[in-house]
Amino acid sequence: MTGAKICGLSDPATLDAAVAGGASNVGFVFFAPSPRDLPFDRAAGLAARVPEHVGIVGVFVDPDDALIDAAVAAGSLTAIQLHKTAPPRIAELRRRTGRETWAALAVKTRADLDGARALAQAADRILYDAKTPEGAALPGGMGLRFDWELLRGFAHPLPWALSGGLDAGNVGEAIERTGAPLVDVSSGVETAPGVKDAGKIAAFLKAVRR
Asked: Which residue ranges traverse the bilayer (predicted)?
């Protein structure tokens, strides 16, 4: 059974929809430039609604110690997800937080997958995400996807997840073609950047279960 993370949640109704639909993980974004950035007080309120069997993943972009310490405490995080963070720093934050650590790897070409080996000793899971354009303000959540065929036959050095441009219409094909054990969606269940839709979340999770 493929797991699913609904990322960038920021209100009780859509968080509840993710949990009710069977999400294995929910994601809270702690990155000021993002439309999904979550204040600590709201993270605490949402975390209180999450049952124990659902993981809470905090999403960061090369964070400093103060941000990650505060977010882990406020959001009751069970895992941290790091974007644009060097492997030694990933390993350091993994030790510092004592949390399961996901490292995002931006992918556009097969050569980009070479970066997975450098993460093998630093993280617990690799999140393959679509590479965003040069100069983009955000490292993800832009609805972009990469060629899933790049993952065919690839020897994954760690447990992994698939992200980038997924939605209810294509996630079934993505799972079928890549064998992804976990899929991650954000913009694919939104009506506007940062505005999650309970119906789209339910449809996505139903497609994953199929």
From this structure: none
How confident is the model over 63-89, as pLDDT tens digits?
999 999 999 999 999 999 999 999 999
Residue 148 Ramachandran class (φ > 0 left, ψ -120 to 50 alpha, else beta): alpha
Catalytic center residues: 7, 129
pTM: 0.94
Which residue range forms the structural domain that includes residue 128? Answer: 3-209
**Burial of 31: CB neighbours in 10 Å, binned 0-12, 13-18, 19+:** buried
CATH number at residue 28: 3.20.20.70
Query: What is residue 14's three-state secondary structure?
Result: helix
d(C-alpha 5, C-alpha 55), whole Å = 9
Q: 147-166: per-residue pLDDT in tens? A: 999 999 999 999 999 999 99
